[in-house]
Amino acid sequence: MLAALLTTLLFATSAICGYRSARQIGGVEANFWRIALATLFLTLWACTFGSGFSGAPGWFMLSGLFGIGLGDSSYFQALPRLGSRRTVLLTQCLTAPFAALIEWIWLGSKLNLPEMFCIAVILTGVGIALAPGDHLKIERRQLQIGVLACVLSAIGGAIGAVLIRKAFAVANAGGVYPDAGTTGYQRVLGGILVPTLMLLVFKWRSARAHGGILEEKTWAVSCEKWRRIWPWVLANALAGQTLGVTCMQWALKTTPAGVVAAIIATTPIFLLPMTRYIEGEKIGVRSLLGALIAVSGVIGLTIFR
User: Fold this and answer.
1) Residue 290 in domain
2) Which residue range is the domain that position 216 belongs to?
3) In the chain, is it the N or the C terminus that has fewer CB atoms within a 10 Å radius of its CB?
4) What pTM does this model have?
5) Quick check: 141 pLDDT over 60?
């Protein structure tokens, strides 16, 4: 449970840093560089203090392909269409039941009634805290694409979480007990493929749009942006895909995916004071009530576990 709570705090920090970097260099590029830097950091760990490719690397890489590749890439496509609150709310609330359902069907790991009730309480609290109060008008096509992207993100994240559980089971059955940093390294290797392909396509289309010529002025603007934004990109990589994923691996090693996903679903609650301090966003009574309900669910889940 401690590992899942640490994951939630780190993911909230990563969301703030990711928002800042994505506004400057775009979602596709920001997503790629955070994963690329995390791959570098986790590679250094796995090749020095960790155990490299020991355990079940194929399963962990497959988990990264779904969770990081499909899940995170879809998430970044939903953000500009639905906005951050709708995207976080829909994705997080769908990931937990998808993870529990997939794990039950495939691995036979059932949740008891008190655990299911606490998960419902957590997700209800998140919904109350983050359900948009305004009626932002979204084009029908953009709404459909955004909702579909959230569903794909939730499915990718849920499959990735369950595959981590399967990977640990396979590794342990072979008498190997890899550390969380090593498994995070194996996972991110499978996750970097999709963001890399997306960035290459994005850059190719951009180059074609500009006749394949990078003007000196454009280069100067790009360098100035990177000078301002690199601390946020670095912090995003460390808090999210490096330390955050490592803590999530640690949590999934001993706890069912549905429970872990439900706790991580409180990430938006942790974001409330951060956005209040950094972005100046006001926190209303509804947000505080939702936070109280969600935290109560986490406490109950801890007791019943």
Assistant:
1) no
2) 2-114+135-255
3) C
4) 0.81
5) yes
